[in-house]
Amino acid sequence: MEEIKKTTSKTVEKKESIVKKESASKKSPVTKKTAATKKKSAVKKTSTDKNAPVVKKTAAAKKVPVVKKASDTEKKLIIKKTVAIKNKNSVTYVPTLQNFYSSTVIPKMQKKFNYPNVMEVPKLTSIALNMGLGDAKSNSKNLESALEEMSLISGQKPVTTKAKKDISNFKIRKGWPVGCKVTLRSKMMYEFLDRLISVALPRTRDFRGLSFKSFDGRGNYNFGIKEQIIFTEIDYDKIQAIKGLNVTIITTAQNDDEAYELLKFFGLPLKEKPVKDEIDEAA
To answer: Is the domain of 244 the same as that of 104?
Structure first.
């Protein structure tokens, strides 16, 4: 009996050991799975935990004070400041005739007419060049050459002038091209006047000075040039025909005497006005 009990107890122990091993083998993958899942969940948690403060930081960093849009006056002030800085850094070009006006012409005009204020001294405002073409309606090449010559003379692109109304005697319709014109101001004006006085007018044939009677009573002076070839910018071999042009010098003078003296001081070759001799008759 004792032997039977011992064998049964051994078999029971073996069975229990086998059951324990099986249970351990079954439990091990479960524990591995749970560990892997735990690792994944831990990684997720850590990733979410790490991202959370970053989001908060970025949100805090994004909380920048709102910049208000600049008004029109502020924009103008900024533009003025930038322009002033650029002007300080860059050397501006001033024509020689403009410097001559400010240095010598203004003191002479003040001495001549006794102006109490410097701002009352007359000055040049613009110079207008006008070239009329009778055959521009039929000859387009003549108009093109006139535009090229005017641009060379003035250094500025001209504008084609058109007829304002129908004229049957000249066989012209409204809107047809009849010439070209250019208006010069500031630096371009002084440069053209300098070239006109020093180079162009002395090259005219039989030149004896400009007439003093061509003032319009409001301080403006008009004179005509018969040949455009007096300007050195034009090549004589390339022109199609000799054309003339009209020059108008516009000033701020109040009368003809002021305008005459102003242009005289600039160096424009005007003829001298005749001086009437006053003869005192004996009483």
So the answer is: yes
